[in-house]
Amino acid sequence: MTDNPHKIRLLVVDDIVETRNNLINLLYFERDIEVVDSATRGQEGIDKAKKLNPDIVLMDINMPDMNGIQATEIIMKQVPGVAVIMMSVQGEQDYLRQAMRAGAREFLVKPFSGDELVSSIRHVYQDEQSKRRFAPQTQYQPGTPATPNGAEASQGEIISIFSPKGGIGRTTIVTNLAVAVKQISKKRVALVDGSLFFGDVGIMMDIRNTKTISDLQGRIETLDTQLLQDVMLTHSSELKVLLAPSKPDQGELITADDLKKILKELKNNYDYIFVDTFSSLKEETQLTILDMSDLILTVMSLEMTAIKDIRLFLEVTEILEYPKDKIALVLNRADSKHGLRAENIEATIGHQIAANVSSGGPAVTLSINRGTPLVIDAPDNPFSKDINALAHKIVDGTIGKKEEAATGAKKNGKVKTKKSGGLFGLFARRK
Ligand SMILES: Nc1ncnc2c1ncn2[C@@H]1O[C@H](COP(=O)(O)OP(=O)(O)OP(=O)(O)O)[C@@H](O)[C@H]1O
Ligand SMILES: [Mg+2]
């Protein structure tokens, strides 16, 4: 390591004083490694890691108050760029798995030799350095690592599709959109049927429900990448799908907490996670999906009832304190002539329409009955073109936050975003 003028800065966290001293002594003559400090407790380790920003934390597992696995989890979230090497007298698979899931890079079983220790530290450090070198120095884009070297490197984006009104086109749009995003981005894309009682995703995509979310029932505590992969089904587009239970009574058994854990695990494994929903805010599971969403595609149509419901829903999102840019309005069958103008609707509900989706005519129903999303079978259909345009916006990150910024000028100009005139005002402006 003579070619590296930067010493590897190491923090040792172990509750036993002899072990700490042994480790420090073992490393004393290594010219490229500097022990910057040591800690005796998990929390102290976290505090020192935050303060000193070491390259590597050498972390014991068994410690009083907080164990090394919990401490590692927190460090991985709160101290970007740091790598953890875990040490334990137990070398069992389960410990190893837990350590790796917490984000540890290597696992040393005590007692280990000085050579083993040093080579492990150098190996992890070099690995981190090369990752840093090749990591894109760009800002966070949805679906890409949140921080170049940070803990949330593989956190995906949850995009749910909701509407307070049923039968408005959610499942049709989300099945096509997820396929389109997969085709455009070539990233890891998942689709979850969160319509837990009467999910239609399987039918619309011609996927037999050999496995569903119900197969995770009772196994949530041990949920990990492997288990998740076991229940996800693969569509011909390579999209991964987690189907809703095959019977409504099974849907009732899925709790909000289950769903939360499943979505969290999906975030660790996919770049985009699309989630279909049903029209209920009474169901805890639906609220959980909305809470956890980075973006809620909210589907509406050019009908007074739909507009009224959307307005009420937007009020609910204000009560829930969702940021405005978490909601992206999608106007379905935007080309239908119903005597209402999109601009007037935007003014009435105080929200911009982020995307328009044209009517696909009977071809949409035909595609549903065949079980092949229209974007695959008829990419030139106006519906497919609009879905692809929306997919591009998602992949480019120009929907949500950035779009709000881009359309900010419009807000101050022609299109008013303050609620004005109410629904009756809209009636008056019907054309
Ligand atoms: N843009 C469109 N063009 C043509 N047909 C459409 C369009 N959007 C939706 N449809 C049709 O509307 C019907 C309802 O759509 P879909 O099942 O996707 O709605 P939903 O909101 O998921 O309903 P549910 O409340 O049952 O979950 C379907 O038959 C579909 O073919
Ligand atoms: Mg549906």
Brief overview:
The chain has 19 helices and 13 strands. It is of the alpha/beta class and about 425 residues long. The radius of gyration is 26 Å and the shape is elongated.
Write the layout of secondary structure elements.
Blueprint: E1 8-13, H1 17-27, E2 33-39, H2 42-52, E3 56-60, H3 68-78, E4 83-88, H4 93-102, E5 106-109, H5 114-134, E6 157-162, H6 170-185, E7 189-193, H7 201-204, H8 225-231, E8 233-234, E9 240-242, H9 248-251, H10 256-269, E10 272-276, H11 284-292, E11 295-300, H12 304-319, E12 327-332, H13 342-349, E13 353-357, H14 362-370, H15 374-377, H16 382-396, H17 401-406, H18 408-412, H19 422-429
Parallel strand pairs: 1-2, 1-3, 3-4, 4-5, 6-10, 6-11, 7-9, 7-10, 11-12, 12-13
Antiparallel strand pairs: 8-9
Helix pairs in contact: 2-3, 3-4, 6-16, 10-11, 13-19
Characterization of the model:
This protein is α/β, with parallel strands linked by helices. Helix content is 44%, strand content 15%. Strand 3, helix 3 and strand 4 (83-88) form a beta-alpha-beta unit. Helix 2 (42-52) packs parallel to helix 3 (68-78) and helix 3 (68-78) packs parallel to helix 4. The protein is elongated, with a radius of gyration of 26 Å. The model is unreliable at 135-153 and 402-431 (pLDDT under 50). Residues 170-171, 195, 200 line the site of magnesium ion.
